Amino acid sequence: MSGPSDSAGALMAVLPLSSADPVADRRADFAEGLAARGDISAAIDVLSGALERVPGWAAGWYRLGEYHEQAGRMAEAREAWGRTLVLDPSDPFGAGLKLELGAGGPGAESMPPAFVELLFDQYAPQFESSLLDRLEYRAPAILMEALERHGFAAAGRALDLGCGTGLMGEVLRPRCGWLAGYDISSGMLAAAAAKDLYDVLEKRDIARMELGPERFELIIAADVFAYIGALEQVIGWCAVSLSPGGWLAFTTEAGEAPVALRESRRFAHSRAYLEGLLAEAGFAGVAVEACVVRKDRGEDVASWCVTASAPPARPLTSSGDALEAMA
Question: Each residue's pLDDT tens digit in the chain (327 positions)?
Fold first, then answer.
């Protein structure tokens, strides 16, 4: 579920979210045109006028905050984003992340599920063209090459965690007997279903999964953990959901701090954090290797390719046990 982060800030530019007032919507469209031409001050004035008509329009306040941010008016931007959160506490636009970034502290360690779902539902129609043509996305090939280099051959049951439109599934399908895909975005799941690669596709918030009876010989997450942040819960879930001797493989962005929220509103993780977390969860043969999974604004994004194997037998019987073991 890799996302095109170099344009993730302007959600309304991807799929305008109506205010239910045609006049306000037309003004917002006009403001978008002004902003595209670089006249941010005029865009602020026009969108502010639209919001006088529809003061309860959360998407409009979020976009106004972005305009203020572009104009360097951070106090006004924070005020607009704060208004967005009051109007819609589920935060589908990621206003809280913007406020965290502007506060200058370490930032949040998780993303609002509504934000991740909306982001990927909106990007689904042009998702693959953005990743492959513009961002030079290579996570599926990098992960499979790493797995094979460390001894993986094939899996009876595999899980594509955060499967998106099925780019990882295209690589996995010839190497597994049964393939499931989980994703939070209905739009992404619909695109994946059209490829007829998966035996099971389910809508799940992978950052907050509960343990079920399913067991897998391979769990793979291609450029997904950059949207989760703190990984203790999902790694604990993977540790318990793998069959003895099974494989875990994932990519994430590389950073110096254990967990850091970046301006792209994606998370980066340090090598030490990943190695320590996997060791505490009982994984063996942990390999954290430098790679470049994608580009952002034309620049390579330094990333980690991580592979690890579950031990032949583990005493853990629940995800809660795994999390307790890592405490």
Answer: 555 554 344 444 444 578 889 999 999 999 999 998 999 999 999 999 999 999 999 999 999 999 998 999 999 999 998 999 899 888 888 888 888 776 544 455 677 888 888 888 887 777 787 787 788 899 999 999 999 999 999 999 999 999 999 999 999 999 999 999 999 999 999 999 999 999 999 999 998 888 889 999 999 999 999 999 899 999 999 999 999 999 999 999 999 999 998 888 899 999 999 999 999 999 999 999 999 999 888 899 999 999 999 977 644 444 445 444 444
pTM for this prediction: 0.76
64 phi/psi in degrees, rounded to 5: -60, -40
Query: Contact 150/126 with Cβ under 8 angstroms?
Result: no
Beta strands per DSSP E along the chain: 155-161, 176-183, 200-203, 216-221, 242-254, 259-261, 267-269, 284-296, 299-309
DSSP state of 184: S
d(CA 94, CA 90): 9
Among the CATH numbers 1.10.3720.10, 3.90.550.10, 3.40.190.10, 3.40.50.150, which is that of 136-326? 3.40.50.150
Per the DSSP assignment, residues forming a β-bridge with 247 are 218, 309
Q: Where are the domains of the chain?
A: 5-114, 136-326
Q: Give yes or no on whether 5-114 and 136-326 have one common fold.
A: no
Q: How many CB atoms lie within 10 A of CB 209?
A: 17
Q: Token pair of 207, please?
A: 């950052």
Superfamily of domain 5-114: Tetratricopeptide repeat domain (1.25.40.10)
Q: What is the DSSP letter of 132?
A: I
SS3 annotation, 225-245: HHHCCCCHHHHHHHHHHEEEE
Three-state secondary-structure class, residue 156? strand
Measured from the Cβ of residue 3, the count of other Cβ atoms closer than 10 Å reads 25
Q: Which two tokens stand for residue 289?
A: 């290797």
